[in-house]
Specification:
The chain has two domains: 14-65; 73-323, MetI-like (MetI-like fold). Helices cover 71% and strands 0% of the residues. The chain contains 13 helices and no strands. α6 (147-170) packs across α7 and α12 packs antiparallel against α13. It starts with 11 loop residues before the first helix and ends in a 5-residue tail after the last helix.
């Protein structure tokens, strides 16, 4: 004698209950989708508002107000070698600010990029998994330290106890208390977590089969790491470099404290310099009356910095798409 098997949907009550559960699940999915879309839309709207603010204040005036580049020639802005908007004889040449930004970001890149990449290679290829789980979070703690702390560290330790004993006492090179070298050093330390984290993710995404093929040919771990894994993760590594340089270019408080506020067109890293972000801080303190040409120069410099960082991010995305290796 066989016993009839009853289906979960054999009764109308069970079918109605299952329909309610499916409807509730769809409502939850729709709510989550709406929240995520709202967050994405908020980010997009914020970016568009920033672009609108820069365009209206720096390029096209609105409401009867003139924009910065309507009063200052773009040619003078890009070619003048003096920046003195708050003096009686005003000059609006971006080159001194751009020079300070490039020098400090360059020093930071020379320090932070190799160290960050070396740390990423070690964590990806050499470190034991237990050690990696400990070292990587500790390394990323550097990203959580406020930039003001880095600035004061450069001012009270790097310059008097590192740079002056080496370069001024031993080599006879004058080192200002506010200088681009100390600012570049701390900026380099600040971008190490960015380079290490992104590069390590790119290295770990390389298939294990490529490593095993290298070992099968008799290669050492060093050869496999530098000649197989690093080239395979080239696009991700270059993208991490570009994003880190963008971070260095946009750094504000550390360079404002360590490098000083002296706009100078010079490649001497031991002299005081001013970056674009440092100038924006000085104007934003409230001493400059709103609506004046000095105040509008804030938007001109900010718009220039926005275009530079935007170009760096676009270049990073292009590199990732152009050189990315796709593995099945």
């Amino acid at each position: 004698m066989s016993v009839a098997q009853t289906s979960p949907l054999s009764t109308p009550k069970a079918a109605i209950q299952l329909t309610k559960q499916l409807s509730l699940a769809r409502i939850k999915e729709s709510a989550i989708k709406g929240v995520l879309m709202g967050c994405a839309s908020l980010s997009l709207v914020t970016t568009l508002m920033i672009v609108y603010m820069f365009v209206t204040e720096a390029v096209v005036g609105v409401g009867g107000n003139t924009a910065f580049f309507q009063e200052v020639s773009v040619l003078d802005f890009l070619t003048d070698t003096e920046w003195s908007p708050q003096f009686s004889e005003k000059h609006f040449g971006i080159l001194p600010l751009l020079c300070g930004t490039v020098v400090i970001a360059g020093i930071g890149g020379l320090i932070g990029l190799p160290i960050g990449l070396a740390a990423a290679i070690y964590l990806s290829e050499y470190a034991h998994p237990k050690l990696r789980r400990v070292v990587k979070p500790l390394l990323e703690i550097l990203a959580g330290i406020p930039s003001v702390v880095y600035g004061y560290f450069a001012l009270v330790f790097v310059t008097p106890y590192v740079l002056r004993p080496i370069f001024q006492s031993l080599l006879g090179i004058d080192v200002d208390i506010f200088n681009a070298m100390s600012a570049g050093i701390v900026v380099g330390v600040m971008i190490i977590p960015t380079v290490c984290s992104l590069s390590e993710d790119a290295l770990r995404s390389v298939p294990r089969g490529l490593r095993e093929a290298g070992y099968a040919l008799g290669s050492t771990k060093y050869d496999v790491s530098l000649k197989v894994v690093v080239p395979a993760a080239f696009s991700g590594i270059v993208a991490s470099f570009l994003l880190a340089i963008s971070r260095a270019i946009g750094e504000t408080m550390a360079v404002c404290i360590a490098a000083g506020q002296m706009p100078r067109l010079s490649l001497n890293p031991f002299r005081s310099m001013e970056t674009m972000t440092a100038f924006m801080v000085s104007v934003s303190l409230g001493d400059t009356p709103a609506g004046t040409i000095e105040y509008k120069s804030l938007y001109g410099v900010g718009f220039t910095l926005f275009l530079i960082t935007l170009g760096m991010n676009i270049l990073a995305q292009w590199v990732m798409k152009r050189f990315r290796e796709v593995y099945e």
